[in-house]
Design goal:
Length: 437
């Protein structure tokens, strides 16, 4: 057996996954992947799941992983199969990402089930490497937004265990101290940052190298997803008639202004993993604002236990506070060795019965339209917007240019010193590349 322990580090690459855990992958010399964990036994029928969750450390305080394990146990008992795990982690920001390793494993048919980020779902769906899940019984109960975001070339290639929503985590006590209203628009957000800065808060917004694209997406697509012409606008982008850069420029200019004013520390963000980089200062009330995913408000390993009044709101946009929702999930390799058993496992762990167990354990938004769970009070502002169908998709497989991963990487160029014009030129190049496929 390969290395039997994995460090639980919260990193963006997998945070937007259905398990809401963020990890990356480390590659060794000569292609050897040092941080692969294998968990399996030579017993009966076996299905192999590639995931950032570790079944090998059952006592680790990871609520998301424990919730997923409950659903896996349901499948094992019902189907008489054993689910073994292959997992990855990384040591620092320079290591190979979970996405890179997932793509390599999918292309080489190394596992049966894969837990994937949206950029991997789209890329592998386009390459025909994932099975169509639309025939599963569990697929009949999916929310329309989940089905839309995970459909590639007419095939439903992934289904999540939760709908991951990103928002701004706010120290309401610090806002009250300076008589600040919670911001709705980009202008109001910048004014709040100015007041904090003038009152001695050196860096009002805690940032990392993964999630600043949420600001960009909220501003870029607020009208697209909440207006009357969503399908037509996406069709124009897919044909090249419209440019993504025209949508994205205001968000990049907003980030540039935050950097220039010192409201975020670009240098620190470039080398900071999600939550690890900014979490300590937020909990210590040194900074009033961070960005994170829904589940971080529920777990004590992130922001589930604070010494202050915390609220989670949407990102500033022309339409007010805007949740950003990247769609991710589980898929089965088209040439999976244990493909039929893998499909059966997914049908159990993504059934309403299992999703209810998962959602009640994690207190998250379910992909099933039949499963509702009451959220913690801190999440109510974000949840209210989502229940009103006000949000933007951080990932949409119906867009030819992949969003979540590409925009993140271009934002990282901005953090590294690129101009807004240079970033927009890169977006134009990516769009042309997508059109040529």
């Amino acid at each position: 057996m390969e290395k039997t322990a994995v460090r639980n580090c919260l990193k963006r690459t997998a945070l937007c996954l259905a398990a809401a855990v963020v990890l990356a992958a480390c590659g060794g010399e000569d292609g050897e992947d040092l941080n692969l964990v294998a968990s399996r036994e030579d017993v009966g029928r076996m299905v192999i799941l590639f995931s950032p969750m570790e079944k090998t450390e059952p006592n680790a305080e990871n609520v998301a992983r424990n919730a997923a394990d409950k659903t896996i146990a349901m499948a094992e008992e019902k189907l008489g199969v054993t689910v073994g795990y292959n997992t990855y982690t990384a040591e620092n920001y320079q290591d190979k990402t979970y996405d890179d390793v997932a793509i390599d494993r999918i292309r080489n048919d190394m596992d049966d089930i894969y837990l994937m980020n949206p950029d991997v779902i789209q890329a592998m769906g386009e390459e025909g490497k994932l099975r169509d899940l639309s025939g599963l019984a569990c697929a009949e109960n999916l929310r329309d937004v989940v089905r839309t975001a995970n459909t590639v070339d007419g095939k439903l290639v992934a289904i999540p265990q939760e709908v991951v929503a990103y928002g701004l985590f706010i120290n309401k006590d610090m806002f009250d101290r300076y008589s600040l209203e919670l911001p709705e628009t980009p202008e109001e957000f910048l004014e709040c940052c100015r007041v904090f800065k003038e009152n001695g808060i050196e860096t009002p917004v805690g940032a990392n190298r993964w999630w600043l694209e949420t600001f960009v997406m909220a501003q870029a697509y607020a009208d697209l997803y909440n207006g009357e012409n969503t399908e037509a606008e996406i069709a124009a982008l897919n044909s090249g008639e419209s440019r993504y850069s025209d949508y994205l420029r205001p968000g990049f200019e907003f980030l540039r202004e935050m950097m220039d004013c010192g409201y975020i520390d670009a240098e620190k963000a470039c080398v900071s993993e999600a939550i690890e980089g900014e979490g300590e200062d937020f909990l210590a009330q040194k900074i009033p604002i961070v960005m994170a995913y829904w589940g971080a408000a529920n777990t004590e390993t992130a922001y589930g236990k604070t010494d202050f009044n915390m609220l989670v709101i949407g990102f500033p946009s022309s339409r007010g506070q805007m949740p950003v929702m990247p769609m991710t999930g589980f898929g089965v390799g088209v040439n999976a060795e244990h493909g039929e058993d893998a499909m059966a496992v997914l049908d159990v762990i993504l059934s309403d019965e299992a999703l209810r167990v998962y959602a009640e354990t994690n207190r998250v938004i379910s992909p099933s339209k039949n499963v509702e769970v009451e959220c913690v009070p801190a999440l109510k502002p974000l949840n209210d917007r989502i229940q009103d169908n006000v949000y933007v998709l951080g990932a949409n497989a119906g867009m030819k240019m992949e969003q979540w991963g590409n925009i993140c990487l271009v934002v990282r160029q901005l953090l590294g010193g690129a101009t807004v014009d240079e970033c927009m030129a890169e977006i134009d190049r990516l769009q042309q590349e997508s059109l040529a496929k």
